[in-house]
């Protein structure tokens, strides 16, 4: 009888240990080194599958909440205006345009959530302002799984802009393969906003919806008017 009690206790301890620890592969363990708690949670979200008797990673909804919380800490429109260095009245030819969305590339982690939605560990916010003669762009790209971020401001004369458009293309993105237990590159269809000037294309992540479609149409119409003036 005592041996059965001992075996049951060992099993109970093993089950408890499994359920209170994450099922991290060596690749994940190496990637989470030196990261803060939120960044570790994000890496596990993209890499660890829900598994029986293992501590579960955060859900799709919890990850979305982390993004929303991060965005709420900064007024990106005001930050953009400050970076551009102009009064808001000087950049009000038409309403400013705001794009944001996940960035899909080789440097970030990609995942299709349990809800069927695509997500990435990199997110981008873009504001575009319009004066009588120029277009001003502010862009902030940040990573949820590490400290890296990139800010940029650009300005273009209407006469130098070739086109505003949305483009769809297939790109290689980084994803975690649980079978190989490491990061791999896969192909993914992406849609982005494109601002084209001679010798350069600037891309902005966006969420396809009625607002972004109407915004791009409005920008194209304004560009035609400026060029024909």
Descriptive labels:
229 residues; alpha+beta; 5-stranded mixed β-sheet; 4-stranded antiparallel β-sheet; 6 helices; 9 strands; 34% strand; elongated
Summarize the structure.
By secondary structure, this protein is of the alpha+beta class.
Helical fraction equals 25-40%
**How many DSSP H or I helices?**
6
What is the H/E order? HHHHHEEEEEEEEEH
Mean pLDDT: 87
SS class: alpha+beta
Q: What does this 3D model show about the protein?
A:
With 229 residues, this protein is of the alpha+beta class. The protein has one domain (3-228). Helices cover 33% and strands 34% of the residues. The protein contains six helices and nine strands, in the order H-H-H-H-H-E-E-E-E-E-E-E-E-E-H. The protein has helices at 2-19, 26-31, 37-47, 60-72, 76-84, 210-228, and strands spanning 97-103, 109-112, 118-120, 122-130, 134-143, 149-157, 163-177, 182-197, 200-205. A five-stranded mixed β-sheet has the order 3-2-7-8-9. A hairpin with a 3-residue loop joins strand 4 and strand 5. The longest helix is centred in the last third of the chain and has 19 residues, at 210-228. 26% of the residues are buried. Mean pLDDT is 87; it is low at 11-20.
Secondary structure layout plus pairing:
Layout: H1 2-19, H2 26-31, H3 37-47, H4 60-72, H5 76-84, E1 97-103, E2 109-112, E3 118-120, E4 122-130, E5 134-143, E6 149-157, E7 163-177, E8 182-197, E9 200-205, H6 210-228
Parallel strand pairs: 2-7
Antiparallel strand pairs: 1-4, 2-3, 4-5, 5-6, 7-8, 8-9
């Amino acid at each position: 009888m005592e041996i059965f009690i001992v075996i049951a206790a060992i099993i109970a301890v093993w089950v408890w240990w499994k359920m209170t620890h994450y099922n991290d592969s060596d690749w994940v363990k190496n990637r989470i080194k030196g990261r803060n708690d939120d960044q570790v949670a994000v890496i596990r979200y993209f890499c660890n599958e829900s598994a029986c008797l293992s501590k579960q990673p955060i859900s799709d909804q919890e990850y979305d909440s982390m993004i929303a919380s991060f965005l709420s800490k900064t007024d990106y429109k005001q930050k953009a205006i400050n970076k551009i260095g102009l009064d808001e009245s000087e950049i009000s030819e038409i309403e400013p345009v705001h794009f944001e969305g996940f960035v899909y590339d080789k440097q970030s982690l990609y995942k299709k959530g349990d809800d069927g939605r695509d997500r990435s560990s990199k997110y981008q916010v873009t504001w575009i302002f319009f004066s009588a003669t120029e277009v001003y762009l502010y862009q902030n790209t940040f990573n949820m799984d590490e400290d890296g971020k990139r800010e940029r401001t650009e300005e273009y004369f209407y006469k130098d802009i070739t086109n505003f458009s949305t483009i769809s293309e297939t790109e290689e993105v980084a994803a975690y393969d649980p079978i190989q237990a490491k990061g791999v590159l896969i192909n993914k269809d992406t849609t982005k906003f494109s601002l084209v000037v001679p010798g350069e294309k600037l891309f902005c992540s966006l969420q396809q919806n009625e607002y972004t479609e109407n915004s791009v149409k409005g920008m194209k119409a304004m560009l035609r008017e400026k060029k024909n003036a």
